[in-house]
Automatic annotation (TrEMBL):
The keyword Ion transport does not apply. It comes from Anisodus acutangulus. Residues 266-285 have a biased composition (Polar residues). This is Protein kinase domain-containing protein. It comes from the Eukaryota. PANTHER family: PROTEIN KINASE DOMAIN-CONTAINING PROTEIN, PROTEIN MALE DISCOVERER 2. GO terms for molecular function: ATP binding; protein kinase activity. Keywords: Leucine-rich repeat, Membrane, Repeat, Signal, Transmembrane, Transmembrane helix. One of its GO terms (biological process) is defense response to fungus. One of its GO terms (cellular component) is endomembrane system. Residues 1-23 form the signal peptide. It is found in: Endomembrane system.
Length: 661
C-alpha cells in the first residue's frame, strides 16, 4: 500500500514537472523583447515578426531554438543595419550558444552580463560601432570558441581574463582603439618552445594560457610593449598597425602613438617547474541500501527538484509582472537606476558649456526671446565672446529616457557638423543632471526672424532687392543641407520662423523645432504609464532624424510666396496662401497681384523667375519637383541683385537702395 502511494506521488510530481517544462520559458521571451526594445532603427524590418505577445519565439527571424523547441540556442542577425544598443538582459538566454550580430550599427558598450552566458560558443559583434572597454567578465565564458569584436571603437586595455578561455580558438580584436600591452601572464612575457607549452612559476592569466588559440588578430589598435613570445606562432600581420616596439610588422608612426616611444617591457625570468597535473579523485562506492529506502530518496529528490523549478518560474513571472528596474525603464521613485548610455566619441569635438556659464550669459535666464510647449529660447552674451541663443528643452527628468538621451547626443552631433554662411552655427551644448538640464547653444542672429519682419515689422525695410538676396541665401543654405552634407540634412519645419536675419539681413537657417518632432513622436507612441510610474517608449516610435528633402522643397515654395506677397502661410480671412496664389501663378498677366502691396518697386523679370520656381516646388507630384541644387542655380543665374541692375530697373531704386544700405 505504501509503495502504491509513493508511486502516485512520484507520477503526480513528474506530471507537474512535464507541464511546467512544456511552456517556453517566459524569461527568454522577455530577454528577446528587451533586445528588440533597444533597437531604435530597423530599416530592413528584420524584427517585424518579433511579436511581444507571442509566447513562442522559435519562428522569429534570426532566432533558433533547440530540437525540443524549449530554449533559444542561437541568434544570428548579421548585416541587417540594426541601430541601437545591446540589452544586458541577453544573459537570461541561459542556453544560448551563438550570438552573431555582425555588420550592424550597434552603439554603446558591451554589457558585462554577456559573461554570464556559460554555454556560449560563438560571439560575433564585429563591424558595429560599439565603444568602451572589453568587459573582463567575458573571461567567464567557459565554453567560448570564437570571439569577434573587430572593426568597432573599443577602448581600454586588453583584459588578461581572456586567457582563462581554455577552448578559445579564434580571437579577432583588430581595428579598434585598444591600448596597453598584450597580456601574457600576469603582465609578463613567457619563454615558449612550442605553441601552447610554456614555463611559469605562477598560475597564468594572460594569452599564454590559451593553448587552443589558433587564430588571433590584434592589428590596427594602439597596443604598446612587445609581442609575447608565446604568441610568436601567429603571423606578423596579426600585430601590425599598433605602437609596439617591433619594426616588423609595420607599426604606427610616433605621432599617431602620442609622440613618445612606448615603454620597454622586459620578459621576466621564470623558472622551470613541473606542470601541475590534475589529480583524479577516487570514486566512492555506494553502500548497499534497502530498495524501499532508495525509492523514497528518489521520490524525495524529484519532489524537491520540482518545487525548486516551480519556485523559480513563479519568481521569474513575478519579476516580469512587477515594476522592475531595468536599464531601459525608469521608476519615478528610483531615478538613479536609469542607465543612460553616453557615446563620448560622438560629442568629443563639440564644446560643452556648464549651466552656470549659460546662466550668467543669459542674465539668470530672464531674457526669453522665444518659446514653445517643448522649449524656451534665451538670448545671452558670453563673457568676451559672441551673442548666443540658448534653447532649453522643457522635459522633466522623470520623463527623460535613455532613448531621448541618445537622440539628444545624435542631434548635437548632427547640428555640429553644419558649417555654412546661411546656416545657424551650433556653438555647443549643456548636459547636467542637477538641476536636470539639456540645452543647445547657437550663434545669435541679431535681427530677429524673417516672419517678424514680414508680418510685424515695417514692410519697407524689406525691399525687393533685399528679399531676393534673402531668397537666394535660403536656397544656398538648403542646397548645402541636401547636396553637400553627407548624410544630407533637412529642416524639421522650414518656414519664416526658422530663418533668422543678421544685421545686414543675411539669412541663417536654424532648426529650432527638431526637438518638438522627437518628443511628440515618443509621446504619441509611448507605452502606457503604470501606477508605479515606469515609462516604456516603444522603439519603433524613436526613429532616426527624419529626412524629408521633398518636404523642404515644398516648404521652400511656400516660403517664396510668403516673401514676395507679405502674407502669412495661412490666415482665417483668406485661408491657405497656396490656394489664394494659384489663380495668379497660372496666369502670367496677373502675376503682379501676388506682390506685397508694401513694395513700391519690383522687377517683373525676377517675379517671373520666382513664380516659376514656386510652381516647381509645389507641384503635386514629388517626382516632378526639382532639386534644391537646380532651383538655386535657376535663381542665381536669372536674378541680378547687384546695384547696377537696380539702378537700371527704376529711378525709384535710389530710395530702396538707401533703405537697403
Amino acid at each position: 500500500m505504501r509503495t502504491c502511494a509513493l508511486l502516485q506521488v512520484l507520477f503526480t510530481v513528474f506530471g507537474l514537472f512535464l507541464v511546467i517544462c512544456d511552456a517556453f520559458p517566459s524569461y527568454e521571451v522577455y530577454a528577446l523583447n528587451t533586445f528588440k526594445e533597444v533597437i531604435y532603427e530597423d530599416p530592413l524590418l528584420v524584427l517585424s515578426n518579433w511579436n511581444a505577445l507571442d509566447s513562442d519565439p522559435c519562428d522569429w527571424a534570426g532566432v533558433f531554438c533547440s530540437l525540443a523547441q524549449d530554449h533559444v540556442i542561437k541568434i544570428n542577425i548579421s548585416g541587417a543595419s540594426l541601430k541601437g544598443f545591446l540589452s544586458p538582459n541577453l544573459h537570461l538566454l541561459s542556453s544560448l550558444q551563438e550570438l552573431i550580430l555582425h555588420g550592424n550599427v550597434l552603439i554603446g558598450t558591451i554589457p558585462k552580463e554577456i559573461g554570464l552566458l556559460k554555454k556560449l560558443k560563438f560571439l560575433d559583434l564585429g563591424a558595429n560601432q560599439l565603444t568602451g572597454p572589453i568587459p573582463p567578465e567575458l573571461g567567464n565564458l567557459s565554453n567560448i570558441m570564437k570571439i569577434n569584436l573587430q572593426s568597432n571603437g573599443l577602448t581600454g586595455k586588453l583584459p588578461a581574463e581572456l586567457g582563462n578561455l581554455k577552448y578559445l580558438e579564434e580571437l579577432r580584436l583588430d581595428r579598434n582603439k585598444l591600448q596597453g600591452i598584450v597580456p601574457a601572464n600576469n603582465g609578463s612575457d613567457f619563454t615558449s618552445g612550442v605553441h601552447g607549452m610554456y614555463a611559469s612559476g605562477a598560475s597564468p592569466t594572460g594569452f599564454c594560457r590559451s593553448s587552443q588559440l589558433k587564430v588571433a588578430d590584434f592589428s590596427f589598435n594602439f597596443l604598446i610593449g612587445s609581442i609575447p613570445k608565446c604568441l610568436g606562432y601567429l603571423p606578423k600581420s596579426s600585430f601590425q598597425g599598433n605602437c609596439l616596439q617591433h619594426k616588423d610588422p609595420k607599426q604606427r608612426s610616433a605621432a599617431l602613438c602620442g609622440g613618445t616611444p612606448p615603454p620597454t617591457y622586459h620578459a621576466s625570468t621564470v623558472s622551470s617547474n613541473k606542470q601541475h597535473q590534475p589529480v583524479e579523485q577516487p570514486r566512492h562506492q555506494a553502500s548497499s541500501k534497502p530498495t524501499w529506502l532508495l525509492a523514497l530518496e528518489v521520490v524525495t529528490g524529484v519532489m524537491v527538484g520540482s518545487l525548486f523549478i516551480v519556485a523559480l518560474v513563479t519568481g521569474l513571472q513575478k519579476f516580469k509582472n512587477k515594476s522592475s528596474i531595468i536599464p531601459w525603464k525608469k521608476s519615478g521613485s528610483e531615478r538613479d537606476h536609469m542607465t543612460i548610455y553616453v557615446d563620448t566619441g560622438m560629442l568629443k569635438d563639440v564644446v560643452r558649456y556648464s549651466r552656470q556659464e549659460l546662466e550668467v550669459a543669459c542674465e539668470d535666464f530672464s531674457n526669453i526671446i522665444g518659446s514653445s510647449p517643448d522649449s524656451l529660447v534665451y538670448k545671452g552674451t558670453m563673457k568676451g565672446g559672441p551673442e548666443i541663443a540658448v534653447i532649453s528643452l522643457c522635459v522633466k527628468e522623470k520623463h527623460w529616457t535613455a532613448y531621448l538621451e541618445l537622440y539628444f547626443q545624435k542631434e548635437v552631433a548632427e547640428l555640429a557638423r553644419i558649417n555654412h554662411e546661411n546656416a545657424g552655427k551650433l556653438l555647443g551644448y549643456c548636459r547636467e543632471s542637477s538641476p536636470f538640464t539639456r540645452m543647445l547653444v547657437f550663434e545669435y542672429a541679431s535681427n530677429g526672424t524673417l516672419y517678424e519682419h514680414l508680418h510685424y515689422g515695417e514692410g519697407c525695410q524689406l525691399s525687393w532687392t533685399r528679399r531676393m538676396k534673402i531668397v537666394i541665401g535660403i536656397a544656398k543654405g538648403l542646397t548645402y543641407f541636401h547636396s553637400e552634407l553627407d548624410p544630407p540634412f533637412t529642416i524639421s519645419e522650414l518656414n519664416s520662423n526658422s530663418v533668422y536675419l543678421t544685421e545686414d539681413f543675411s539669412p541663417k537657417l536654424v532648426d529650432f523645432e527638431s526637438w518638438k518632432s522627437i518628443i511628440s513622436r515618443s509621446e504619441k507612441n509611448s507605452g502606457a504609464i503604470s501606477s508605479e510610474g515606469a515609462i516604456c517608449v516603444l522603439p519603433n516610435s524613436l526613429e532616426s532624424r527624419h529626412l524629408d528633402v521633398q518636404g523642404n522643397i515644398y516648404a521652400f515654395g511656400i516660403l517664396l510666396l510668403e516673401i514676395i506677397s507679405g502674407r502669412p502661410p495661412y490666415c482665417k480671412d483668406k485661408g491657405c496662401l497656396v490656394d489664394w496664389a494659384k489663380e495668379f501663378l497660372e496666369v502670367p498677366e496677373v502675376l503682379s497681384y501676388v506682390v506685397d502691396p508694401e513694395l513700391k518697386h519690383f522687377k517683373e523679370e525676377d517675379l517671373k523667375v520666382i513664380c516659376e520656381v514656386i510652381n516647381l516646388c509645389i507641384h503635386p507630384s514629388t517626382s516632378r519637383r526639382t532639386s534644391m541644387k537646380d532651383l538655386c542655380a535657376i535663381l542665381e543665374s536669372n536674378i541680378d541683385t547687384s546695384i547696377t541692375a537696380e539702378l537700371k530697373a527704376s529711378s525709384l531704386a535710389w530710395a530702396e537702395l538707401a533703405l537697403s544700405s
